[in-house]
Amino acid sequence: MKKRVAILGSTGSVGSQVLSVIDVQHELFSVEVLSAYNNADLLISQAIKYLPNVVVIGNADHYSKVRDALNSYDIKVYAGLDAISQITEMGTIDIVLIGIVGIEALNPLLSAIRNKKKIALANKESLVVAGELISKIAIENNVQIIPVDSEHSAIFQCLMGEFDNPVDKIVLTASGGPFLGKDNNYLKNATPEEALKHPNWKMGKKVSIDSATLMNKGLEAIEARWLFNIQHSQIEVIIHPQSIVHSLVYFADGSVKTLLSFPDMRIPIQFALTFPHRLKSTFPTLDLLSANTLNFERPDVKKFRNLALAFKALEIGGNMPCILNAANDIAVQAFLNKKIGFQQIPDIIEKCMDLIPLTGNPVLTDIFETDKLTRHKASELIK
Ligand code: MG
Questions:
Q1: How far is the CA of 40 from the centre of ligand 1 (A)?
Q2: In angstroms, what is the span from residue 268 Cα to ligand 1's centroid?
Q3: Statement: residue 202 has pLDDT above 80
Q4: Which residue among 296, 316, 336 closes a domain?
Q5: How far is the CA of 69 from the centre of ligand 1 (A)?
Q6: Ligand 1 geometric centre to CA of 294 (Å)
Q7: What is the 156 CA–ligand 1 centroid distance (Å)?
Q8: What is the pLDDT at residue 198?
Q9: Which listed site, 71, 87, 157, 345, has its alpha carbon 20 to 30 Å from 170?
Q10: Distance 172 CA to ligand 1 centre (A)
């Protein structure tokens, strides 16, 4: 029987690539649910192609448009953010793939865990803001979260079969983004168009900017802390421009494991869907001879201050990663809208980290409150 997949955030970069994986593996997977927030047109065309049982449009303003367009198909249409969470209750879903960007993924993720679904997680922000809470609820419900992000997928695969073997440290690799090696003067005047040109990965706008500022790697470090139950002092970041080595695990005996592949998100996406099995794919395979040289260097946290701020937030803990994430969201949007420069992004984040009150063991309401407060403060600082 085919595995029935709910794709939350199907119109985003990851969501679209999940569908292209399902195109290849259509004999094994079927699409049960598609959801998107705003992109009604793409959601409608995806629904007509994949014929899911249910479609959810997060922004209720688009409800009638989606309903009318799918009127002649046997597809139920729901609207609203709550509907995206509630849909994970469906008994006909085998796997929930969460490709939603931002903190909006938190409630659907918690709901999918409580409904004991197999979860493939591509969202970063939920684990960044509420990692401790999510880990606790996942353990209580005996739910395993399979990471989709290439670095975490690599670490997850390196740890397969290692059980309780002691890990010394985890090293996350970062491509360095489009501004690797640029000087401060260049960075000050960098434009959104330049920042969006990622050398190796095909990604959405928010992740592309985060990759240019190295915040993406900072968020990934916080995610790793919770996904792999490892201390902040055991996580390091190294720049590797070719994006072929996808992170490393250092074991206590001196052995180091890593995972190599051609940089194509469809590879970790397929693995998350098929775990613990590996299926034949048609994706590009790695040719080390044509890759020729693999380089590694230390990240420059004086130039890319977001990375240092993320590690500081990780070390402080509590609601600090939530403050970091919310301030970064607002600052990245302001940069994309040309209201602030590239090097002002860390200024805004640092100020918010100083100004918003710290909460030691935040519960869900504290997290949403911190998020709101920080967004407000960051917007004020930008005006
Ligand atoms: Mg990544």
A1: 27
A2: 10
A3: no
A4: 316
A5: 35
A6: 18
A7: 13
A8: 77
A9: 345
A10: 9
Q: Compute, in angstroms, the gap from residue 14 CA to the centroid of ligand 1.
A: 11
Burial class (CB in 10 A: 0-12, 13-18, 19+), 288: exposed
Angle at 350 between CA 195 and CA 152, to 5 degrees: 60
Residues 41 and 123 in one domain: yes
Ligand 1 centroid to Cα of residue 288, in Å, is: 21
Residues 185 and 334 in one domain: no
Q: Domain ends where: 147, 180, 201?
A: 147
Mean of per-residue pLDDT scores for the chain = 96
Which CATH number goes with the domain that contains 331?
1.10.1740.10
Please, what's the largest Cα pairwise distance for the chain? 62
CA of 123 to the centre of ligand 1 (A): 10
- How far from chain centre, in Å, is Cα 184? 28
Q: How far is CA 347 from CA 27, 105, 184, 193, 358, in A?
A: 50, 27, 14, 21, 19
CA–centroid distance, residue 35 to ligand 1 (Å): 23
Q: Which domain holds residue 110?
A: 3-147
122 and 14 in one domain? yes
> Of 139-148, 289-298, 323-332, which range is least confident?
289-298
Q: Which two tokens stand for residue 333?
A: 């949007």
Residue 203 pLDDT level (bands cut at 50, 70, 90): confident
φ, ψ (nearest 5 deg) of residue 145:
-100, 120
Instruction: Judge if 305 and 194 occupy the same domain.
Output: yes
Q: What is the pTM of this model?
A: 0.95
Q: How far apart are CA 201 and CA 242, in angstroms?
A: 10
Distance CA 179, CA 299 (A): 12
Residue 21 Cα to ligand 1 midpoint, Å, equals 18
Q: What is the mean pLDDT of residues 371-381?
A: 98
In the predicted model, what is the mean pLDDT of residues 53-79?
A: 98
pLDDT band of residue 291 (cuts 50, 70, 90) is confident
The mean pLDDT value for 342-357 works out to: 98
CA of 150 to the centre of ligand 1 (A): 5
Which protein residues have a CB closer than 5 Å to ligand 1 (ion)?
Answer: 149, 151
Output the CA 62–ligand 1 centroid distance in Å: 31
Asked if the model's pLDDT at residue 201 lies above 80, the reply is no
The position carrying tokens 């709901």 is 111
Do 210 and 188 share a structural domain? yes
* CA of residue 341 to ligand 1 center, whole Å: 24
Res 337 pLDDT > 90: yes
